[in-house]
Amino acid sequence: MGESQSKFKKLKFKKLWGWLKRPWLLGIPIGIYCIVLLGASFQGAMVASNHNEFCFSCHLSMDTIVQEYKASPHFISDDNVPATCADCHVPHDYVAKLKVKIAATADIYHMLKGTITKETFEEHRPRLAQEVWDHMVADDSANCRHCHQGDNFDLAKQPQRARLNHEQIEERGETCIDCHTGIAHKRIVIK
Q1: Residues contacting residue 189 through CB under 8 Å, at least 6 positions apart
Q2: b or e along 50-77 (b: 16 or more beta carbons within 10 Å of the residue's beta carbon)?
Q3: Among residues 119, 136, 116, which one has the least CA distance to residue 185?
Q4: Which DSSP string corresponds to 128-171?
Q5: Maximum Cα interatomic distance, the chain, rounded to a whole number of Å
Q6: How many Å apart are CA 98 and CA 30, to the nearest integer?
Q7: pTM score, two decimals?
Q8: What is the pLDDT of residues 83-132, one digit of tens each?
Q9: CA-to-CA distance for 12 and 6, rounded, in angstroms?
């Protein structure tokens, strides 16, 4: 039995070596490994760029947006469940999220080019705010509605005026951002 096992091992090694001698066959497992590694890295970057620390890394040095957010009800939550930057500014649907992340690379370009700096931010802020508001109106404040639904949006628990406004929002053709533009950042006056 020892001799047949030895022959079997040699035969197995020979087959493996013969397979490895064909470079195109070696490319299959290497290709699969690279695809998995690339996919995992991409998904990791998508997740990491949804954390406040990622957003703060640029915005903290550029403007007062972080301080405004940290003083807002979206950061200081009664339930200790603060909304992150991504909860409000990044769609939850994967394809839409991917589009927003790609479009956000323009911010990196402008930061590197020096178009928008801490000194010039406030002059650009009305235009940037309007872009966010227009997007929120276009998608009917989908990110707001993602969290503010069911138990998180109980009309019976709201003050009478808020409850009445929320009940009539659709018939008036409005969306969340029409009334709540100053909820997480200071209200910007567009001239």
Answers
A1: 126
A2: bebebbeeebeebbbbbeebeebebbee
A3: 136
A4: HHHHHHHHHHHTTTHHHHHHSSGGGG-GGGS-HHHHHHHHHTTT
A5: 91
A6: 27
A7: 0.73
A8: 899 999 999 998 999 998 888 888 888 878 888 888 888 888 888 888 88
A9: 10
As a whole number of angstroms, the distance between CA 180 and CA 176 comes to: 6
CA atoms of 143 and 89, how far apart (whole Å) = 7
Kindly report, residue by residue over 156-176, the tens digit of the pLDDT. Answer: 888 888 888 888 888 898 999
Q: What's the one-letter identity of residue 143? A: N
Terminal Cα-to-Cα distance of the chain (whole angstroms):
91
Q: Which of 82, 11, 120, 98 is nearest to 47 (CA)?
A: 98
Burial class (CB in 10 A: 0-12, 13-18, 19+), 131: exposed
How many other C-beta atoms can be found within 10 angstroms of the C-beta atom of residue 145? Answer: 13
